[in-house]
Amino acid sequence: MKKVNDILEEAIYGKPEIRPQERKLFLSTILERIHVALTVKQVVSGNEYTEVAAAMNKQKDVHLYINGHLSYQFYSRYTKLAAKANVPFTIVTPTDSTPIGLVVANASHAIQPPTASVFIEDSLYEKDMAPFNQD
Predict the structure, then answer these.
(1) What superkingdom heads the lineage (predicted)?
(2) Which of 35, 45, 48, 135 is most buried, by the most CB atoms less than 10 A from its CB?
């Protein structure tokens, strides 16, 4: 049973958010739900990553999250893929700097077993992630 103070704090401040830093990085979702993620440079490159289409076609209950700072011309091919696969998508405008351009994730639950790496690690990935990997 909830304590009175917990109920009052929730009424005043809202429900506490789980993993807020992770949600800021991954366009409002958390790592354990992600099938595949592309960096901003990967989305802007013009290359269509087949892993994104495969995740949308193969998995059930997925959602596409797109970085709202990107121009429509760069991510439109992924919204078209989502429409074909009947996958809902959300354009998220991050308030903090993030190297993430696009995420395909389960809408409501964690992936079992977890994916080893959600990123496609190519040269564009390395360029985008370098500033975030510095100590």
Answers:
(1) Bacteria
(2) 35
